[in-house]
Amino acid sequence: MAHSSFTSSDKKNWRSRLHEIIFEADTPAGKAFDVLLIWSIIVSVATVILDSVAGISCVYGETLYAIEWFFTILFTIEYILRLLCVKRPARYAVSFFGLVDLLAVIPTYVSILIPGSQSLLTIRMLRLLRIFRVFKLAAYLGEAKIIMGALRASRRKISVFVLAVIIIVIIVGSVMYVIEGDKNGFSNIPTSIYWAIVTLTTVGYGDISPQTPLGKALAAVLMIMGYGIIAVPTGIVTAEFAQASREAVSTQACPACGAEGHDPNAVHCKYCGAHL
Amino acid sequence: MAHSSFTSSDKKNWRSRLHEIIFEADTPAGKAFDVLLIWSIIVSVATVILDSVAGISCVYGETLYAIEWFFTILFTIEYILRLLCVKRPARYAVSFFGLVDLLAVIPTYVSILIPGSQSLLTIRMLRLLRIFRVFKLAAYLGEAKIIMGALRASRRKISVFVLAVIIIVIIVGSVMYVIEGDKNGFSNIPTSIYWAIVTLTTVGYGDISPQTPLGKALAAVLMIMGYGIIAVPTGIVTAEFAQASREAVSTQACPACGAEGHDPNAVHCKYCGAHL
Amino acid sequence: MAHSSFTSSDKKNWRSRLHEIIFEADTPAGKAFDVLLIWSIIVSVATVILDSVAGISCVYGETLYAIEWFFTILFTIEYILRLLCVKRPARYAVSFFGLVDLLAVIPTYVSILIPGSQSLLTIRMLRLLRIFRVFKLAAYLGEAKIIMGALRASRRKISVFVLAVIIIVIIVGSVMYVIEGDKNGFSNIPTSIYWAIVTLTTVGYGDISPQTPLGKALAAVLMIMGYGIIAVPTGIVTAEFAQASREAVSTQACPACGAEGHDPNAVHCKYCGAHL
Amino acid sequence: MAHSSFTSSDKKNWRSRLHEIIFEADTPAGKAFDVLLIWSIIVSVATVILDSVAGISCVYGETLYAIEWFFTILFTIEYILRLLCVKRPARYAVSFFGLVDLLAVIPTYVSILIPGSQSLLTIRMLRLLRIFRVFKLAAYLGEAKIIMGALRASRRKISVFVLAVIIIVIIVGSVMYVIEGDKNGFSNIPTSIYWAIVTLTTVGYGDISPQTPLGKALAAVLMIMGYGIIAVPTGIVTAEFAQASREAVSTQACPACGAEGHDPNAVHCKYCGAHL
Predict the structure, then answer these.
(1) Which chains are within 8 Å of A by 3+ CB pairs?
(2) How high is the mean pLDDT of chain C?
(3) Which CATH number does C2-136 carry?
(4) Between C25 and C20, the higher pLDDT residue
(5) Fewer CB atoms < 10 Å away: N or C end of chain C?
């Protein structure tokens, strides 16, 4: 905060203190604010979900509507305060959490013009990702990092895989459109591609399903393909996890013989016996 | 048993003997009791299942009803005896098996007031978990421990994963509710979330399925996501299993300090440096 | 063959030669017989499959019926010859392939009494497992052995897993029967258990699906459970495969320092440099 | 190009330059051609997909038809040019990309005779596989090679697995045909086999589902089998990936003999024994 260039030290203090409360979770006030925020998010999302149920909405509609507006105004004030106390408002505004914070209040205002759009308020759930920061869940954060790391390390393999899947579903979808045609539910190529995705991922709604023998045969091939193909992303991610856990074991080298691969609790080199 | 503080040694012997029969499986009587108990559980659960089938119930209903009450009274007596002979009845009553033993008899009594609740008697199946103890299936117990251990070791990664899944299904469910709406079966947000879970897990009942092009496109993205995401828990658990089996490999103890857990390729003890 | 105790050397030769042709694949005659047999199996199974299609059956029914009887009589003669030329007919008759050979002809004879049972002739497919033996597909046989070995090594873990799955589906099935009841398709506990299996395995036919909010909530839990649980058998089998491939690497120990874990192509110990 | 035996150096230069533009991506002209080609493919496939949608087709049908013919003629000219400038036209014509290039134009011409066949133009998507070459996406190509390598290394295990799956679905399909019969939708054995594949792969459309208790029991067994069996290809591919990533770990070369492929913990070269 010492690097900030505000003219009024009074104003600076006010903003600095606000920053501490809103953005940090080290002080009691900051932690209390974050806990309150999390509960507000959960209650407001529950309100939106309950409001969509006809039976509940027609009885408690008024109350739920009031709660929704209450939280929206609260989150709007919070968003403005965040913009005020952060050092680089523009950078915060375009950051992931900045956008989520904005999107978390917009739907209520839009719902005045377009009724029903308030259902999109559930995007507030994304704000819960802050939960990790709040409770200093360092261990959980570490795990999340390992998962993200494994996914990032295999992003190229996954890109290749996704491209292959896209090519397969487009070609199989088109062929099925020619084989089955409109009368069997494959009314156009996008619908056929949708069917191919439903089948390849083994979801299998059954809203569209092949009726001709040739279509069934091709569908059977696609299913077995999908059944086997799932092994590819699983294999990729698993190998990354195994790699990550192996690397985590140790990177210490023996000072005497230079051997690596020692367990984290090793005191002596397992090859030459020298003290590590 | 020597530490117990009962006044009458006669009573103590009676309880001690009962404890041996009911809770242990080392003596012939104890083993016979346990084998009898397992068969009672299987027969009583089969009775409950058969009784729910209309065709069987209207013919053998009387007999099945009698068998059900017979086993319920038997298990009630057994439960009381367990309470009587155990040293700390309160602790047993709130333990996992104590609660299961209680829940295994309650539904029959409740069914006098609320007909149909006796179907819940199948919770007796959980008592079968004792099967491991009875037959001294140490090896199987070991395997169960490895599975539980692998799951426990990855519980944080799994928590992160489950939280991510919950956030995804809530947001996607809400968006689908806005896109598809009541007329296409997405009658409210909870129903839409249910649909999102059905789709993400690749179950795909088809009782609700998107009808609009936009809805189908979003569903396709969710399916491919679900198809790929399954790689994450699989990768986590597999890496843990691989880790566990690697650790289990070496059981060599150091001749100098007795430490275990050396790698198969270790030449010197990693703790004291002695030659293995 | 020298150990056989037949009185007539002439008869012995006849049986010995027959044995060579039927049971072995080293001689040209034996190989020709086996190739012929494989084609007979494929053609006869195709006949049975085609005969079940109404459109084909009403036109070519007579021909297909004749082919079916032709192959059945052929396989019956072959079965009798196998019994005659094998040294221990009783042992062959109760072996896996002996039973399959018998079951591969019975349905045609039974179909005289019970029409329609000839469809079971497709069990002849199991005879194709001999294909590995015929073409000396040693490498494939090795792979099959690795797969079977991995499955056998993890059979205890898989038993524990299957027992857990059975307990889950019985209890969840019963609870769903109480929650949903007959009016929503959960007509009895066996049907509910069937639904639980359909859901847990992520098959999801949709012929039965929960209608009540509580039922949907429980179904959602079961789905996520099934989605995650699949990681367990995958993890078990994968760890076994990894273990098997690691063990296959090498079991050679260095004569100088005793270190293990050398690659199959290693000439010198990677730790001390001694010649292996 | 120096090895070509064309008489006219002028013609050679023309062909050589054309080859550079069409087949290579090193020169600016070559790269521009390839980028243009990729956009042409994407636009033309999008045209075909949009043309199949009734609502779009009846409004913009004329335009889309014109675009389709434009690209077809363009790709035809390109195909002819490729044949002209390549050194061995016959070899190119029967190569994978040669066939794809040909199949990418044929459907439009065929659609004059057989309306509707132009949907098969989406096979042009396969031409996108060239994308890797164009942008010198060496890293991605490497990843694709690792995936292909892992699949190739496990092709025998996968063959054994696929054969087992085929035998299972044929036998289970036939048995279900006998159990359920025509009245429950299992109208013939091919349909029953299709159902078995739909169930084993956990797709589960629900267009055909067992109605009898015995059929449901067998279906339940098949589902649990399919649920567990998926562990086999996953295990195979994962083990291969792990193996591949382990092999990729060390890229250290021996200073004495230059051999590579040493383990990360190697101290001495495993071939010549020199200190690394």
Answers:
(1) B, C, D
(2) 79
(3) 1.20.120
(4) C20
(5) N
**Cβ burial A202-213 (10 Å sphere, 16+ → b, else e):** bbbbbbbbbeee
Q: Mind telling me how many Å the CA of D164 is from chain C's nearest CA?
A: 9
Give me the pLDDT at residue B199, please: 93
Q: Are D234 and D212 in contact (CB under 8 A)?
A: no
Residue located via tokens 């066949």: D117
Residue D223 token pair: 């589902």
Q: How far apart are CA C63 and CA C50, in angstroms?
A: 11
Chain B residues in contact with C226 (beta carbon < 8 A):
201, 203
Architecture of domain D145-243: Orthogonal Bundle (1.10)
Q: Between chains, do C206 and D204 touch, taking CB under 8 Å as contact?
A: yes
Query: Is there a shared CATH topology between the B2-136 domain and the B145-243 domain?
Result: no
For the ranges A88-97, D135-144, D211-220, which has the lowest average pLDDT?
Answer: D135-144
**A120 contacts in chain B (CB < 8 Å):** 174-175, 178
Q: Which among D123, D143, D197 has CB closest to A160?
A: D143
Q: Given CA atoms B130, B135, B136, B142 in this order, what sign does their dihedral have?
A: negative
Contacts of D190 in chain A (CB under 8 A): 213, 216
* ipTM exceeding the 0.95 mark: no
In degrees, to the nearest 5, what angle opens at C-alpha D95 toward C-alphas A229 and A215? 45
User: Do A237 and B226 make contact, defined as CB atoms within 8 angstroms?
Assistant: no
- Arithmetic mean of pLDDT, A162-175: 88
| Residue of chain B whose Cα is closest to the Cα of A237 | B235
Residues in chain B where the model's pLDDT stays below 50:
1-6, 249-251
In the predicted model, what is the mean pLDDT of residues A109-138?
Answer: 72
Locate C86 and state its tokens. 């094998």
**pTM of the predicted structure, to 2 decimals:** 0.82
Q: Give the residue extent of every domain in chain C.
A: 2-136, 145-243
Indicate if the pLDDT at residue D263 is higher than 70. Answer: no
Minimal C-alpha gap between C210 and chain D (Å): 15
The residue whose two tokens read 């036998």 is D171
